[in-house]
Amino acid sequence: MNDTVLQIAAIILPLIIAIVFHEVAHGWVALMLGDPTAREQRRLSLNPLRHVDPFGTLIVPGLLWLTTHTAFGWAKPVPVNKWRLRDPRRGMMAVAAAGPAMNLVLAAAGAVLLGLLFRFAGSSEAAGLVFLAQNLGNFIAINLFLAFFNLLPIPPFDGSHIVEGLLPRSAARTYARLRPYGIMLVLVVLLVIPRLFPGWGIIERMVLPPVAWLGGFYENLVRLVAGI
Description:
The chain is mainly alpha-helical and 228 residues long. Helix content is 72%, strand content 0%. It is globular.
């Protein structure tokens, strides 16, 4: 029982940090580009209670990670009003990209910290150090997964805002009409299609390959810092 609790804690704690920083990054970039909505609604805080959705941030990802080793989850979205941005079209692309970019930065920070832990703790099997190493390892993996997962071009994910900004204006308006049906699209693409057509899993085909590829660079960073 204790092992299970520790495993869940080593997933939930890194996930909360990853999601909170992801959301705050959206809000800060929006503020820099002219939209103070997140600041006005006190959402530029690192206090997890302002961002965590108990079901989407804790229960769903915890169960998924234990059963499938993927970390699909969500927080309360940071409010962004594109029409308050100085350049709504390009501004929304930058705001959307800020979240995944933050996750990549956090993964790099986790890799450095894990490397330092290996360098100075060596082969110690102290329970606290083992738990810390598990947290940092999960932190790297979760951040990488969230970065690429959120870049999927499916509303309401960040990738959809980037695609919308890249499309010609007429095509962008058509694409934007899918946004009200975003949750339905997510369920169909991520849950229904893989069950009906096992070889068409979008996570396996579009998310996990770049995660594994980039993960190799982060592993090398851990080894470099650790002096291995």
